[in-house]
């Protein structure tokens, strides 16, 4: 492992706004001698997840902020739109003032924000990222020993609401209902890690044989291939290998998991776009996901609460949330849009509830959330004008003791990729820099790194 | 195995079994004395036709892959139904498509298969194999009765015949041998011929040669320095375009024999496909794509505002438009431009309630002609377009205007500027939307809204569900519009405007071409498209003639060698053993 | 529908290839979306509170221990019978009540089939003076006064008799019975279409109006809010019984019968879905929002009411709706006020009114030939009458005999001679708990 660290990047860090880590890869710093367990002796898997919601939070040019705490550092005060994380405040860090720097590329509305956070590059056009999303890199590191490398979720039932990509073009297909998630995690192929009568399933071996037929046929045809087509087929074969790995893991006796209790199947709920239905689906999915994590089915997840263009609306309202953010006038006295702010608070309720589900599962002396890092973020800052300044970002969970949580960090216009880098290092990925162009950074937020 | 034969022939199933099963594994059949046969059975009830598998003809010479397109959900379903019977159930979630240049068929070219997606394909493949090998079906589908658990000839005939249909080309020797190996492993392990064949079938069903439509070019015999599209690829293009499914036996036969390379042979196949009832399936797939009907996945309406909306209404409205288009353009072979002005439709009881008209039938679907004074005018005034391109609780002239330009005129609207300030837009509770939009004084907005809004505003006599209305917030709705120098009023005026627009007819030409060709619009094609447009016009704007004109034109099968797949560097590229992950954008 | 005939026939001509010859000048069409007995609720709030109708509130639950003891069961037997976990209850029928409850008459006779063999528990009826319905007997001094005070002499002995019963009492569209039974209709169990036509120029004030109630096989459709969706089409399915036509007039939009119909058959949202009315009248308002709402009334056979509740599984009804069914029998007999045979005849019928709400709909003549723009009879082209609606439709209905439910094999669990607890109780209990 090389330390990507040079004098220039350090200097830049010192001169920048927030204090700066020096690009020190996390693994070297914290692993014990043989690299199998963390120095504090914790043996719990590292889990990582992204949590996305659309339309940002309220912080207007008129100065009417509804989410940015006034205090910096630990012990930040709970603002109206952060109400839902009040109970977990000590496990959540809040990041304000970070931005997407476009390098002359247009602001692709409801896309540039999260595309830049995830890929490290401002995208050229909608629905395409100019690189893989970083969660896939985390999944490559954390997902090698679990049945699923990652699990993708869409609480609003929108199957295209997923931003996890290895190519920038093809995106993972999320589970869109709690039942589908349950079936994936605990349906066919699930092996109870605590089953004393475990034995390898011969059916799995036959499935391996089937897939090896396909992978061996890769060169069967004497046909040349263009670069673009090569990438597509490479993705296919990467997927194939991941499934082969999953099968191989299923042939090994699973490690016992103390916290693993197989949940009951949820009811088959319909797709609904009202905020209450999305919230309920989000909570049920979180409960199932938490158990999927505790039962070692996966270590990585990507949850999309609602996409930015979402047609989510409040039952009985005549306008969608998205529409409201745009056409609701700013209240002159308050300095913000009261209805939009109320909706933002409602949407944030799901984030709080999501984290609470992870925190409800005891593991060792702590909870599942203590052994997880969740990066919560949105597509915009001030949604009314599609701002990609001051996009709200949260890091939640203890990351096995690596995250010094409970702080508010003000970015003062720094590249938002610093947060992506921080998240990857906290999650246990050994990288020293992230992003391209003006958003290339080797400076994680050292204040939140233990 | 190499089998070289002459012309294919039609014979009965019984003799196929005898011939196919008499070939021993590994046997080299040089020249078959009689036409050798492999069953390609779509409909077990129908007359069975056989095609020379022509194995030697495929994989023998160097090929260039000129296209890789992921099979769409409907293509997958239709192909499985054709190859194994319509009673096979497919319960799977398919990965979403992506739209580019107005069509998923174009965006699709960029798609691969994610891990989750492949898991789904793997799971559904096992389910299909279970169903195919179920007692009640297997004899009919396999086509031979295994003499013993290790009846290799029977296994081989199945793998070759079904594999050929799934891959839209004969399998290579390597592909066959690998399947025979896993068949043998499974059959021995389980002591069951069919259990082994299941494994072989699953491996075919998850193979990228099936999940992707790979298009191949080969050396042109007329000009060794040039390429031509492989006959099998031509057959697949015709079939997927017109029937939305893999090629049938006759098409594969035409590909194998080379008949498809002659203009008569090609025209004969095009005529045959166009004359079939299955053209409806292809047309439905095309319009499902072109009209953005994937948006139905997430269509929702606020029950407080539109109590009549339900999933049944949504499904019905989609079906209405597809039935209307197929009836108008295919069954009746009428002028494409009339889809914007026709007051005819085909509806059901749920839709009649939305349209606020009596349902004039006791059947599930009925033809209906809207009264002259109804404001209804063609496809833009059907519930599908009006509700898909609205908000959950209101109409949206802007979205409607943007989408009608994008879908029917191939005029995409740029993304709105990011810093747009909506604060001047009044609340929904006041006045009509026209007044609210009139406050759009931002010059950055006006450029686009000046085009999109007038068209959308002319549809304001229909609310966000597509129901007729004359008032909004108690005020009469003004549906007059001015686009450029042209002034018109309401949906009928808009319909006439579109009917007369050259952009509308050039757009359908363009869409049909690229839907079939599976690549983005290229300005180099402008002259070709213009020529097709003229032919479309002189043929009276008939969709069937448009299909014929495009599909019989050699230009449609023009080969474009992609970057990296040149005849010289191609081999190195394809055969390099670099890890796949490096190419996957890591 | 709020459409004049001219508009409708224009659309129909285009849609259907030619409208029929119409005599009426205007027509409106609807589909019934709600029926309930017109039980005026005399309290200001709640659903069971004391009010002018029932000063003690809705009748409470009978003291079943007392009832069984008085019927001659021992304390031990009573305790065993009232324990809901004990058998005597056939399979698939375990919610409440059990067959042995029936055998509490003289010599343990079945009080459901022979209520006169039980003592009259004296049902508490309505004591208020306000009621809804029609002055059926033409005597303004006999009967209730309407809630708005505009009408007196309203005959509604059904209400007077049963208005404090838990199942019927409650504000508009909120009583237990109306909610559950209308939902069966709203989920498609049956459909009644209505056609109103008139010969004058002003539909709201027309002296020559007819209103017809017709059977339709087209199910009601619920909208996104759970209400009945408007504007759906219903085709008249001719029926020899279920067709009711009234001569009427409209006054300010209210349809009033000009001459009571001698005998009509209508649907009712109840366990028995058919209702015979003698001397029947309607008063229905065509509202500006397009709906139709009001009352239908007349004299109905009172024993059928009782029989309906018995067939609905007497013991279950008693437990769920807090009633001693023999009390219903005695009270209906006592309050019956009409004889088809004239003043001196046996009073087999009781005055009754129901509330009816209908949604705007399109109604088509049989075969969907054209819009129904005229109120005419289709009985002449109706098929022979089919099976009558049972109180409890489906397989369980066939197993209800004398208010008790037989097992699938047709065996009666319990009976006058039954040993309590039954000797097989242990094994039955065991099997029930499996």
Topology (SSEs and partners):
The complex is a heterotrimer of chains A (450), B (586) and C (434).
Chain A (H helix, E strand, L loop, with lengths): L6 H9 L10 H5 L16 E7 L19 E2 L17 E5 L15 H8 L14 H9 L8 E4 L23 H9 L15 H15 L6 E3 L1 H24 L24 H20 L5 E7 L14 H7 L10 H22 L2 E2 L2 E2 L4 E7 L14 E4 L10 E4 L6 H11 L23
Parallel strand pairs in A: 1-6, 1-9, 3-11, 4-6
Antiparallel strand pairs in A: 2-11, 3-10, 7-8, 9-10
Chain B lengths: L12 H10 L40 E8 L2 H12 L19 H4 L7 H18 L2 H8 L9 H16 L5 H18 L2 H13 L2 H4 E9 L2 E7 L1 H13 L5 H9 L5 H13 L3 H12 L20 H21 L12 E4 L1 H7 L10 E4 L13 H6 L8 H13 L23 H5 L5 H15 L13 E2 L2 E2 L3 E4 L2 E4 H10 L2 H16 L8 H13 L4 H9 L18 H6 L4 H4 L3
Antiparallel strand pairs in B: 1-2, 2-3, 4-5, 6-7, 8-9
Chain C lengths: L4 H12 L9 E12 L26 H7 L4 H8 L74 H6 L13 H11 L4 E8 L7 E11 L16 E3 L7 E9 L2 E4 L3 E7 L6 E13 L5 E10 H10 L2 H8 L3 H11 L13 E12 L1 E3 L30 H4 L1 E2 L2 E2 L19 H9 L1
Parallel strand pairs in C: 4-11
Antiparallel strand pairs in C: 1-2, 1-10, 2-3, 3-5, 5-6, 6-8, 7-8, 8-9, 9-10, 12-13
Helix pairs in contact in C: 2-3, 6-8
Could you list the spans of chain B in which at least 5 consecutive residues all have pLDDT below 50?
Answer: 1-56, 568-586
DSSP helix count of chain B? 25
**In terms of quaternary structure, what is this?**
heterotrimer
Number of domains of chain C: 2
- Share of residues in strands of chain C: 15-25%
How many beta-strand segments of chain B? 9
Task: Report the strand count of chain C.
Answer: 13
Helix-strand makeup class of chain C: alpha+beta
What kind of sheet is the major sheet of chain C? 8 strands, antiparallel, barrel
Q: From the alpha-carbon coordinates, what is the Rg of chain B to the nearest angstrom?
A: 27 Å
The coarse silhouette of chain B is globular
> What are the secondary-structure elements of chain C, in order, as H or E?
HEHHHHEEEEEEEEHHHEEHEEH
Strand order of the largest sheet of chain B: 1-2-3
Largest sheet of chain B: 3 strands, antiparallel
Main interface by residue count: A-B, 84 and 90 residues
The amount of helix of chain C comes to: 10-25%
Average pLDDT confidence of chain C is 87
User: Which spans of chain C have pLDDT < 50 for at least 5 consecutive residues?
Assistant: 1-22, 92-96
- Residues in helix, % of chain B: 40-55%
Instruction: Determine Rg of chain C (CA atoms, Å).
Output: 24 Å
Task: Report the mean per-residue pLDDT of chain B as an integer.
Answer: 84
